[in-house]
Amino acid sequence: xxxxxxxxxxxxxxxxxxxxxxxSGFSINSVFGPSGVLRERIAQGxxxxxxxxxxxxxxxxxxxxxxxxEPIVFTENSLCLFGRPSALQRGDALQNMLxxxxxxxxxxxxxxPGGDYAFSVFDRAEVIQPGSREFxxxxxxxxxxxxxxxxxxxxxxxxxxxxxxxxVDLFLGYRTTAMDIAGRMDDVEIMDLPDSLSVNAQxxxxxxxxxxxxxxxxxxxxxxxxxxxxxxxxxKRL
Length: 238
Prior knowledge:
Elements: E1 4-10, H1 16-23, E2 27-33, H2 35-43, E3 50-53, H3 56-64, E4 72-83, H4 93-98, E5 104-107, H5 113-128, H6 132-139, E6 141-144, H7 158-164, E7 170-174, H8 175-184, E8 189-192, E9 200-207, H9 212-221, H10 224-232
Parallel strand pairs: 1-2, 1-3, 5-6, 5-7
Antiparallel strand pairs: 3-9, 4-7, 4-8, 4-9
């Protein structure tokens, strides 16, 4: 029987990580969730072999505690705006987000890097239209990615549930999540962010406490066959 390797990974890797592991010949037991929440679990004593975070900060905290290897870049993602066609009709991403008619969702800052990246977009919006930052921060519905947020049901991102239950009109989040949801829901479309609002999301990997299984798994995930899966799911191979 093939040994399963325990991995803690950012929720946005939910679809691609099993494909990467399978192509590199590894069996994994994956725990997906907000990177900040998973980092706290490791700091409190849980020990996966490998931790994949959607930003550097959480990996660096563990490294500074002496709990893991130095962080290395694992992949990259980007942000976009996606939602109901009626909420995207203005043709301008910022104006669609600012519209009082649209309920705008994001992930939860601090707990989940996806929320941090979304709020960084709001910071950029302030340069374009003064007052946008605070307005968008106050209207954003941070309904996923927090310690107490509902967990994903089955294979779907929890963002899928927000649209299925009509809790948001728009969501500012990862392009890979948008691609998955738009592929499953006929009434969800994707709008690119202009360069002036664009934020790049880098993911990092660390091996926990020099775990040999983690070292070998990370090598496997860096192999060409596994990297091809990243591109197929909308991530950037490195």
